[in-house]
Amino acid sequence: MSEVTTDKKFEFHKEDLMPQESIQEKITRACDLMEDIYDQGEYPKVLVRRSWSRHNPVIDGEMAKPKAYRWYLQRELTKLAEKGAYIKVQPSRKIVPMNDPSLLDNTDEDEWDITQKKLFLFSPERIDLSLNRLEHYTGTKPEDFQRYILFTNYDMHVEVFNNKYPDCIKPNRGGIQMPAYHHVLPDNKGVTLINIGVGPSNAKTITDHVAVLRPDAMVMVGHCGGLRNHQSIGDFVLATGFLRADGVLDDILPLNIPITPNYLLNVYLKEVLDKYDRSHRMGTVYTTSNRNWEFIKRRTVEEIHMSRSIAIDMESATVATNGYRYRIPNATLLCVSDRPLHGKPKLSDEAQSFYEESKQMHLEMVIEALEMCKQNYPEGLPNASIRAPNEPLMGGPDDD
Question: What is the pTM of this model?
Fold first, then answer.
């Protein structure tokens, strides 16, 4: 390990700017220093002093692998600097090796103090571990991930994505569990597609790790069983809420906390559906962990009726719940592949025909909606609806 240069330090105050200097240049130097400190074997520490905050004027925190989400740090620190915050960057402590048993002492989210405002949502040990696992699961480097993340569980969507973006970054080896594909644009403003496989456990695993990168949006692009009589195969479902029957996050986030998708994402998805005159319904998606839920039909259908659910799947509520937990705007656009309660279960031959007809339009519409997000909110969708008074500073510089 390289010897740490502990005297390296960066300080910024708007009043000290030289006439020829810009805030962007200063924050670029701060981000360069963070990367240099980490490369030399220590976690960089960032301190922010906000004179406008009555209750939390000084907040600090440590980072890991700042290169992986540099676009985010550059954006958020620039916002704070422009508002007049004092910013300091310096080395903190030696990086904990991945094989050190003490690593997990600082990744335990049960130890979070929810009453204390934080600079960053994750500890540096958690960041290191998550980004290592993300590279393992997806076969791509963390810095290749873009601000807009799409989740699918079908190779056909990967095929459409690769045809649309033939130069996209692909997994660097075979046999990947959740392969990722990245259409890279400057400042990470492109789109990433991850084939997460089937089931809520996979959905939780990937969103636990993607969250460290602080994406601007996550969208589930999947299929579902239509639960209403007036739905047809190929209709779309735009989720407005979720019934969490998957169970994988019940011990982490109570079921009595309402989970809803991002309003603006839904507005843009609805505009695209209307533009292409696609038949669709908006409503609650029922997410289950039981692929063979039909084998306990009476119990499941009773919950479906009580919740007024219009579709059933295995990932959407899980993605949305982790989006809520980690303060990431999210949405779900599903396509009806079967109607299990109306004599049209998912059967092999019929399913393959449906997939071939729907795959292109489905992905194209979601990407078009994300383009609308970029045009209207180039620096990220508002996320006040999923932030709290004890929110991390990054992403909410106007809070006290």
Answer: 0.89
